[in-house]
Amino acid sequence: MIGRILSLGRRGCDVLEALGRSGLFLAQSGVGIPSREGWYLWLRQMHFVGVLSLAIVLVSGLFIGMVLALQGYTILVDFGAEQALGQMVSLSLLRELSPVVAALLFAGRAGSALTAEIGLMKATEQLTSMEMIGVDPLRRVVAPRLWAGFVALPLLTVGFSVIGIYGGYLVGVEWLGVFEGSYWGNMQASVDFIEDVGNGMVKSLVFALVVTWIAVFQGYDLVPTSEGISRATTRTVVYSSLAVLGLDFVLTALMFGGFS
Amino acid sequence: MKRSKTMELGVGLFMLAGILGLLFLGLRVSGLTFSVPSDTFRLEANFANIGSLKPRARVTMAGVTVGRVTAIELDREWYDARVILELDAELEGQLSRDTTAAILTAGLLGEQYVGLTVGGDPEMLSDGDIIRDTQSALVLEELIQQFVSNMVSD
Amino acid sequence: MIDSPFVEVSNLHFSRGEKVIFSGVELQIPRGRITAVMGPSGTGKTTLLKLVGGQLAPDAGRVLIDGQDVHALSRKALFTLRRRMGMLFQSGALFSDLSVFENVAFPLRVHTDLPPTMIRDLVLMKLQAVGLRGARELMPAELSGGMARRVALARAIALDPELVLYDEPFVGQDPISKGVLVQLIKQLNDALGLTSVVVSHDIQETLSIADYVYVIADGQVMAHGTPDSLDIDDDPRVSQFVHGEPDGPVPFHYPAPDYFHDILNLEGRP
Fold this sequence. Notes:
The complex is a heterotrimer of chains A (260), B (154) and C (270). Chain A is mainly alpha-helical. In chain A, 87% of the residues lie in helices and 0% in strands. Chain A has one domain. Chain A has helices at residues 2-30, 36-76, 85-123, 126-133, 137-175, 180-190, 193-221, 226-256. The N and C termini of chain A lie far apart (45 Å). With 154 residues, chain B is an alpha/beta fold. The longest helix of chain B has 25 residues, at 5-29. With 270 residues, chain C is α/β, with parallel strands linked by helices. Chain C is 36% helix and 23% strand. Chain C has ten helices and ten strands. Chain C starts with 6 loop residues before the first strand and ends in a 6-residue tail after the last helix. Classes of the chains: A mainly alpha (260), B alpha/beta (154), C alpha/beta (270). The interface between A and B is medium-sized, with 36 and 26 residues. Chain B: This is Outer membrane lipid asymmetry maintenance protein MlaD. Chain B: It comes from Billgrantia zhangzhouensis. Chain B: InterPro entries: ABC_MlaD, Mce/MlaD, MlaD_Phospholipid_Transporter.
């Protein structure tokens, strides 16, 4: 019994220690002073995590918008309320689906790649040699990736929303014959820029920070062997997915739960 | 360090697309308009019951949106709801003093909005005036109550 | 000043978890010479270099480089000190996203404000010294192991350091590459007046260039001396290592219960 409590305590300490380490890690890498060099490194990471994730995010967004319109139509048409299709598609995308699904896709596509890349740099002693040359790898390697993720995911989320709403338009208006004016009109009447678009963006910023943070920390903190890298990559996807879904509930409760 | 032009172009386009997308969400999806604040004037209207009317609800005239509800508060003197409306400046001095304001519902289950109907008074409403003639929101429970009491009295 | 050692390790203690790696190591690395640190695998030779480079902190004892205590320095002062050191890693540790040229230029770009033409000249000089000027546009993935290590060497000496640490420079190299590296280490040391520390367990290659040799085993310095004096040292562990005998004071077997009992142990069988 005492042994159980002991091992529980040890695990608790391990978790706390890892949290503390990752917090310090975030603080140290986040303050990297932007220089011309840093700007270029950031640009390269933007290409890596942003532009290269664009295809998967846009295709998923299109399909999710189309499915939403199809599902929504069959339900709304029973109430004779198919005019509200635009409202339904846009609100579900802006408030919920775009931030969450884009963050999950981002964790799978970019997060795991970041972990593997940094882990490989660690395993091949590139980080150590950088330190020996007198360059802080937190600033040189981690900070640009952190900032690129933080900027790229909200942009990807916007893309997801836009193409999802367009997908809803294709199915709802072009295929199922909802009146075009009411699709856009109902949407405009019910979507509030600050409340809906703004809160969705806030969610997306939070997810971006958390997913990128988890990804780079897992990469930086892993055991530098091939097994360690594959484990850390898995951990990145699992932890960031759970963190995104859990935080989504908390943020939704704060934003739309009427606690204000 | 060698710079790859295609990569820079890619990132530039990516960010531009993101900003354009945000613009699209603002203008096309949430229907934002860049109206200058001075383009409006204020009217007040007291309602006995506003139902579920919310700030930012539309104000319409013959179905055309002409303004928004900016604030709803309790009138301490009469204990009813004072609703502040902000209307297009073009309408200032065009609405007669006996204009009526009614709280209407879009469809059976839709959101509530304020509908204005012009009367025949030669005097016109101006900034800060109060609309006297108002019609409260329909509250389903009250309707049922009326219906039941009518049935009983018949 | 010439006679004072460049690196001085005194009473160094270090352990990783339960495992004691060093218990009271004393080293004196003379200026301008090649000093070899040898010992069987797993005796913490790489750890020693990391302690000298300030990447790990010892449990007790200190490391002085040119009179400065490495582990008492602030982070900033440590990074400044590291500009005077170069380190060649076991795996080369070239930055995989940069070309050979950019890898060698990297320390120059981050530590100096030299104009691009001068950086180009310096990089080409360093690459010429390791014989890879023609390979400057290649990426690290396109290099053979020996070439990667030579590029890494060029990068390590890019800032003209005073001290170069070599971590297992010969491991996993074919005889030609080994010969090239031996010659390069020797030439660079003599031509640039470097202080070199070579950590290795390749006896022949190391002994052929070292001016002074330390043998480490069991967390302590077992023997030290010039290569000539080392061979005749009568410590059995040293002679086992130098002559490459499979069994001796350093046992062939990992600690285990008695073989006879172990094999007859019926309880352990499924």
